[in-house]
Amino acid sequence: MRTYCHRQKKKTRHLAQPTKIDKPSQSLEQPPTLQERSNEAGLAEWAAQQQKWAKIGNTLLDQPPGNSPQPWLQPQRDKNTTSPSEPSANLHISPMMGANPPIQRLMDVKSFQEATKGTLFHPRKRITAIDDPLKKIDQSGMDSILLNELLEAINGWLKVASEDSTRKPVVLQLREEVMTELEKIATSLSQDFDPENPPPTRSRRNAFSAEVTGAGKKYGSDFSDFDSKQFRVSGRAPQRRIEEVKRLKMEDGTVVYYATGLVTNFKGKAPMVAPYPDPIPLGDWYPKVTHINGMAVAPKSGLLSAAALQETVNTALGGKEDVAFGQDAVDILYTYSAQRGNVVFDLIDCIKGKLQIEDEATGKQEDIMLDAVRSKKRVTVSAHSRGTIKTDNAVRNVHEILTKELLPSIRAARQEEVMAYWQANDPQIGLSADMLAELSYSGFAAEEAKKQLNTYIQLIYAGNAVQHPSAFIDVKLFVGGLDLVSMFVGTYSETGRKIDSIIGTGGSKKSKLKSVGGTKGHGFVGNYVPTVGQEIAQDLQQR
Fold first, then answer.
1. Are residues 287 and 353 in the same domain?
2. Of 148, 172, 192, which closes a domain?
3. How confident is the model at residue 91, as a pLDDT?
4. What is the DSSP string of 35-74?
5. In what ranges is there compositional bias, type Polar residues (predicted)?
């Protein structure tokens, strides 16, 4: 009879066991030994694990036994006689590891394309469906969401592939690697989060209930339900998490973010968010890097672009620990600006932005910047395409708000000096010294607001769609040589930016515009993420 080899975990829970099984010894003097159980016992625990994850909508372990690799079975082959054509030919399973191979990187997309290259009579057609999710993993790193997307593409190809396909062994090997990574991630997450024993939450005022946006709803191309929703992308692949978060301002003015649910997968282009039993306060956490998307972007594409940017920033930082947060990765707060159904409605939304009509997404950008200035903690505000329009409107609004807030203190501090000046230097234009002094106070407050904005905000516009950027923050503008949106809608050249600043129609003199390449288009991930990620990383290293 085959035997089930139990993994050694930091903490073991048996959710559906007829009898109590003691933990293996963790003594240093006696190394843990393998425990053997029947396949029936292993299957029972696997089923219990599935039930546990079903409570939060996780699909990592949805594959039924028999239709997928069965990690609860010990291999019964001679370890020295593995067939080169078998998917696990390159996997080494040591005795102390039982049926669990070590974490390993997947083959990259170039290696996969080379291994499955086409010929004149056998071109690569259907198998190209596997290339796209592999590219996303190359860009963003492995996590459960991207691995599930890759697994779906692999299974889709295997359903139509012929039995004698020469590419099948390569695809089967990739599938086994994916399943290995998914099981490893699922095991780690199950240790970190138990839906039957959720993390305790602090007492809070004006709290909100956890809800799932669009639960059970089918989406076409209008994702207005998700507009201005915010998500925190945290950790590094493969342990990356994407959580929906909400900002709450307490009565004493303190801002606290709450995690309300975990993105476990996607249904079409909409995220599947498993709500936490109670919103979890994130304590002193604040966003150091933020991003908002452009037009015609579905939630799935937007979240994956945020994950790609987060991975690029952390890669550029070289894995250096974030001392401020006590963590080994910089998080990103992503604000979704909704796709409105079709290009016409998205363009209308852009026009509203051009007319400086505020909406919820603009308001979220204002909150991010005001929180940064008031808490004196620098934040990166990254925007793409239509997001640059909303963000630029937010910059103007924030500058006006800060100017009004600073005015009383500046008036009190400089009243004697300013009044004495205008009483001694009447310009003979029909304005009293008091009126001239008020104008001076307003000017001083505006300059101080501008100084604070530049101190605490790094502003980046990628695929810039703003023709006359505000002059209140020194912004880094990035455009592509083939980016038609920037070319016809926004500031497109450094010369044009300088002229705009000199004649006073818009833009700060210290702003900079750079091209990311003559062949680059408008898409964010493929064209702008590498450059924007490097720019953010450089700023983070100087904080």
1. yes
2. 192
3. 31
4. -EE-HHHHHHHHHHHHHHHHTTT--TT-SPTTSS--TTSP
5. 24-36
Taking the C-alpha atoms of residue 314 and residue 331, their distance in angstroms, rounded to an integer, is 9
Peptide bond preceding 408 in cis form (omega within 30 of 0): no
CATH code of 155's domain = 1.20.58
Residue 70 pLDDT exceeds 50: no
| pLDDT band with cut points at 50, 70 and 90 for residue 239 | confident
Q: Which of 124-133, 143-152, 359-368 has the lowest mean pLDDT?
A: 143-152
Collect all residues with Cβ–Cβ distance below 8 Å to 426 and sequence separation of at least 6: 433
Question: Are 175 and 298 in the same domain?
Answer: no
* Residue 303 shares a structural domain with residue 177: no
Looking at the structure, do residues 266 and 143 belong to the same domain, yes or no? no
What whole-number distance in Å separates Cα of residue 122 and Cα of residue 119? Answer: 5
**In this structure, what are the phi and psi dihedrals at residue 454, rounded to the nearest 5 degrees?**
-70, -25
Query: How many structural domains is the chain composed of?
Result: 2
Tell which residue, 227, 505, 479, 255, has the closest CA to residue 367: 255
Residue entry with tokens 């080169």? 84
Strands (E), 151-284: 230-234, 241-249, 255-267, 270-281
276 found inside a domain: yes
Give me the domain span that covers residue 144.
Answer: 109-192
Distance, in Å, from the CA atom of 122 to the CA atom of 367, rounded to the nearest integer, reads: 55
Counting Cβ atoms within 10 Å, is residue 509 exposed (0-12), middle (13-18) or buried (19+)?
exposed
